[in-house]
Amino acid sequence: MISNSSSTFPVDARGVTKRFGDFVALNDLNLKVRSGQCVGLLGPNGAGKSTFIGCLYGSVDRSGGDLRIFGFDPARDARRIKERIGVVPQENALDEELTVLENMKLYARFQSVKDPLRRIKELLEHMSLEHKSNAQIRSLSGGMKRRLTFVRALLSDPELLILDEPTTGLDPTVRHLLWDKVLSYRQAGKTVLVTTHYMHEAELLCDRVVILNHGVEVAVGSPKELIEKETPGFVGIFEADQANTLTAHLDSGWHCFVQAKQYCVRAPQIQHLFALQTASGVTAIQMRPANLEDVYLKLTGEELGENE
Amino acid sequence: MRMSDFIITFRLAWCVVVRNWVVYRKDFLANISPTLADPAFMLTALGMGLSPYIGNIHGLSYSQYLAPGMAATTVLFTAFFECSYGFYVRMTFESVFKAMLTTPIGTPEVVWGEFIWVAIRASLMAGGVGLVLAALRILPNPWAVFLFPLIGGILAIPCGAIGLLASSYVRNINQFQTVYSFIIAPMYFLSGTFFPISDRSILGVIVQISPFFHGVRLLQIAAWNQFSLQTIAYHLGVMLAYGLILGAWSFVRIRKKLIN
User: Fold this and answer.
1) Is B95 helix (H, G, I), strand (E, B) or coil?
2) Which residue, A40, A60, A179, A259, is the most exposed by fewest CB within 10 angstroms?
3) How near does any CA of chain B get to the CA of A204, in Å?
4) Is B12 touching A (CB cutoff 8 A)?
5) pTM, 2 dp
6) Do A50 and A91 meet the contact criterion of CB atoms below 8 Å apart?
7) A214 and A67 within one domain
8) Which candidate, A228, A223, A224, places its Cα nearest to that of A268?
9) In the predicted model, is pLDDT for residue A302 greater than 60?
10) Chain A residue closest to B260 (CA)?
11) What is the DSSP code (8-state) at residue B174?
C-alpha cells in the first residue's frame, strides 16, 4: 500500500535488517529521507552502507524490517522504484567494448527515455563530456568514466539519486565538479542519498548523516549537530614527540588522541589552544575547528575491523 | 502476471537482447566464424573424408547422415558457450548486470533476454548451416532448411540453460572446462550425430536423457524426410520439457547470483 507520507519521505526504512548466514550486515536500521534532502550514510568498509543501498532497489533481499521507497516495497515492486531513481554504483560497470554514445543509448532504452539523443547530448555537455561521444569507454580516464556514470544515472531525470561512494579514487578537480553537480540537484529539489568515506564530502553535501558501524546505526543528525554533540571545540595538532611536554599543561576536560603519528588535543575554545602553546612553549602544526572526521573516528573507533 | 506486466517484461528482456547484439556486432566476424567454420571442417573431414570408407547408413551417405547433426552442433555450441563463458564474463568481469539492475530491468528480464538472444542466434545459425548443407546437396529434403531455424531456436533453450546453470555453479572461469568435458562433450559425441546411437541397446536408452539428442533427432527427421507425428511429438515434447525445467532452474540459480 502506498502511504500518504511517501511523497514527503521517498525513503522510509524501519528496522531494516540483512543477514548473510550468521553474519549480520545490517541490523535494525531506521532511516527516513525527506524529499529534497541529501542524506549521507557514513561508516567503515563493511559497515552495511552498500547493503542498505542494494536493499533500496531490490538488488539485495532484506532479511527483515519494513522498507518503502516512494511507498513501494522493493521486495515486490522494484521495477516501479527503479523507474524513479538514478543510481551511481560503486563500480562504474560501463560496457568497455562500446563507445560513450552507444553505452548511453542502451541505458536510455532501458529506462524508456523520451528523445534519448537530445537528453544524452544535454547530459554529456552538463558533465563536460560532449567531445567524448564517440570515444571507446576503455580510452576514458577514471574521472571521465565516473562522470559518465553520473550521466547514466541522470538519463531518466530521477526523483531520487543514489550515490554509492561517488568520488572514491578521483582527483580533487573531478571531485569538486561532482560535488558542484550534486549540490545543484539538491537545489533543483532532488532527493539524494550518498554513501561516502570522505567526511568533508558528507559535511559539504548532506543535510543529515547516519553513521553506521558493524551494521548498526551509531549516530544520526546534521553534521553540525553531530560535531557539537560528539566532538565540540577545536583541535590542536602537535608533533608526537611533544606529547610529554604538553601533558603537564592540559586541562582534565580536554580530549587527547594520537592520529597519523601526531598528538592531537581537542579543547572547548580556540583560546585554550593558544594558551596551551604559550604555557608549554610548543607550537601547534595546525589548529582547526572539530569536524565530522573527528566524530566519525570517535564513534567507529580508529582500529581496523576484521573486514579490513 | 497481468498482460501489461508481461508486455513490459518482454520489452525489457528485448533491451537485454539489443545490448548483446550491439556488443556482438562490434566483433561480428570473429564471433560468427567459429560457429560456421567448425561444422564446415567437420563435414569436410568426417563427411567427405570418411564417406568412401563407411558406405551407407540406413540408406544415406555418411555426409547426408552427418549433415543435420552439424546444424545441431552449431546450436549446442552457440547456446552453451554464450550462456556459460559469455554470460559469466558479463556477470563477473564486466559487471554488466550490476548497472543493468539499477534500471527497470530485473533478473526475470535478464534471464528471458539471455534466452531470447541465444534462441535467435542459434536459430539463425541453424538456418545458415542448413542453407550451406542444402547448397552442398547433402540434405535429402532440402525444404528442411525452413524447419532448421525453428528446431534450432527450441533446442537452444535447454542448451543455453545448461550454460546458465554452469555459470551459477562454477567458482571460476576455468571450471567451465569440467562442465564441457563431462556434460557437453558426452552429450555431443553420444547424440546420434556421428552414428545411429538408437541402434545400440544400452546407449540408445541412456541417450534419451540428453536434451541434445532429441534436437538432433528432430533435425534428422526434417532433413531425411522421415516425418511421423508420434516421433516428432515425443522428441519435441521432451525438448520443450527440458527447456521449461532447466530454464526455470537456471532462473532460480541466476537470481541467487545476481541478488544478494
Assistant:
1) coil
2) A259
3) 26
4) yes
5) 0.89
6) no
7) yes
8) A228
9) no
10) A60
11) G
